[in-house]
Amino acid sequence: MTLRVRLSLLYGLLCALALLTVGLVSYTASVREQYLSLDRLLVVSARIVENGIRTYGRSYALETDTLGPTKDGIVMVMRSYSPKGELMYVSASDPGLRPVRPQGPLEHPAEPAYLKVLPFPLPQASVPTSKNSAFGIITYEGQRWRRYVIQVVKAGRTVGYVEGLSPLGRLDEASLNMARMLGNIVLLSTLAVLLIGWWVAGAALRPVSRLTDAARAIADSRDLGRRVQTSGNRDELGRLATTFNRMLGSLEDAWKSQQRFVGDASHELRAPLTVMSGNLELLRRHPHLGEAERWEMLGEIERETGRMTRLVEDLLLLARSDAGVQLRRAPVNVNEVILEAVRDARKLTADHAFHLQLPEKSVTVQAERDRLKQLLLILLDNAVKYSPAGTPITVQLDSVAGLDTESRGSGSGGSASGHSDPGNRAAPQTTVHQTAVSQTTVRVTDQGSGIPAEEMPHIFERFYRADPARQRDLGGAGLGLSIAEWIAGQMDARLHVESTGPQGTTFALSFGTSPEDVAPAPGRPALRA
Questions:
Q1: Whole domain around residue 387: which residue ranges?
Q2: Is residue 186 part of a domain?
Q3: Is the dihedral of CA 138, 143, 146, 152 positive or negative?
Q4: How far apart are CA 247 and CA 238, in angstroms?
Q5: For residue 133, what pLDDT is reported?
Q6: Which uninterrupted H or E stretch holds 262?
């Protein structure tokens, strides 16, 4: 069942329930009041006859011509009985009703007459009667008659009975007609609401249909460049369409990035595989090559194998980052890690000197030791590749500690200094909280030509090189800075370009550390290059 159908049925059901509730309440109140009005008229008419009999022994109301109905269409029949229950007088409007025992209603009062035509019995209401009177119901020629009987008592003895009767056929028929009309109104109104709800739901869900069509078209064509047309409304569906377009934009960017990633990875893997395949083919076709040539080919195969191994390891590491793998952090001595990274970096080049600027105190941060060393090696390797031969590379570690002061007051009234106030024993106290904070930054500075401004936004992208013309000479696959940025993020640090220009580029790795992360190393000399 579609959402449009469900909404239409829901609208129709709610409308039917509302109309049925209002109709039943109105119908009950109207019908009940008509039957109660008839009971009141019977009570008044019978009391008039009772007063005449008690006072004069007879009532002239019994002799009044009541053959025709009243102005309200009500026909009244009045009768009187002897103390023994014998019929004595009958009004002219009596159609020939058979005599009945007047004591019957007094012994067994009847329920309200409207209960037969109401769909439910509550709430009940009735016309109040005295202890010597009661209502009853008889049937004559298939029609109900409402009956009211009064026991006439004079000087403590019963002198007779007065009975008033009125037919209920017209009222019963009118009530049933009203019930049928109410049912028709509810049915027609419900059908009308279903049609209107169908149209309203269709109009309201039209943006959702556009979203569905767009999603289906994109799934069929795989064209992530398509967008859903928005009407500019700021309602929920308008915001949904806008969000859907933004999602499509993100998916398109991710798809293009993935395509570039796969293409670059394929290219980077194809190059060493081509070299290795070519050398192996030469060795197979020329088994009698000289030893020097053979060792040269094997060396080239070994270098390309190592290069491909490093590339695969980098790709696996980036895959771990995409999968949300978290690093396990622990306190790490940054000074020691920098010294280890610089020792390994010296093996990469003999054309550069490394200048270290480390503080006297040991600096500790929350990190994973091996990954922090890998990050520093990436920065150092990058500096070596882009610095002219003979230029120095500087590694600097700075840790700045300070106090973060916060004042808090308690109590009410008094001075802010916290001294007691003789006139107010609940003088406020101001508490000063001082928390030590530290900022640790590792900087790696080269002497290269700098990074062009147009390439700055892309340097942390995978497989991106600031100098494509030199990619084969520089080596690598353009994944180093991407990996370094991921490692920094895992350690709650920030890796960024602090400065760049013709005089060189400085990469900065900044940690926001806690006070215990900066501590002196007692009895240990300062670490220097």
A1: 330-401+435-519
A2: no
A3: negative
A4: 14
A5: 92
A6: helix 236-285
Of the pLDDT bands very low, low, confident and very high (cuts 50, 70, 90), residue 427 is very low
First and final CA of the chain: distance in angstroms?
76
360 and 385 belong to one structural domain: yes
| 421 belongs to a structural domain | no
**Residue labelled with tokens 């929350």:** 366
Whether the model pTM is above 0.90: no
Rounded Cα gap, residues 214 and 228, in angstroms: 6
Please report the beta strands in 196-288, taking only residues with DSSP state E, as ranges in sequence order. Answer: none
| Shared-domain flag, residues 298 and 348 | no
Write the CB contacts of 408 (distance below 8 Å, at least 6 apart in sequence): 430, 431, 433
Lowest mean pLDDT among 195-199, 355-359, 413-417: 413-417
Dist. CA 113–CA 144, nearest whole Å: 9
Q: How far is it, in rounded angstroms, from Cα 296 to Cα 179? A: 106
User: How many CA atoms are closer than 13 Å to the CA of 140, on its beta-carbon side?
Assistant: 16
Element (H, E) at 403: strand 393-410
The answer to whether residue 442 scores a pLDDT higher than 90 is yes
Q: From start to end of 105-222, where are the E strands?
A: 133-140, 143-154, 157-167
**Separation of alpha carbons 285 and 94, rounded Å:** 135
Query: Is the bond into 515 cis (omega within 30 degrees of 0)?
Result: no
Q: Is 429 within the bounds of a domain?
A: no
Task: Check residue 72 and give its pLDDT.
Answer: 57
- Is residue 339 domain-shared with residue 255, that is, in the same domain? no
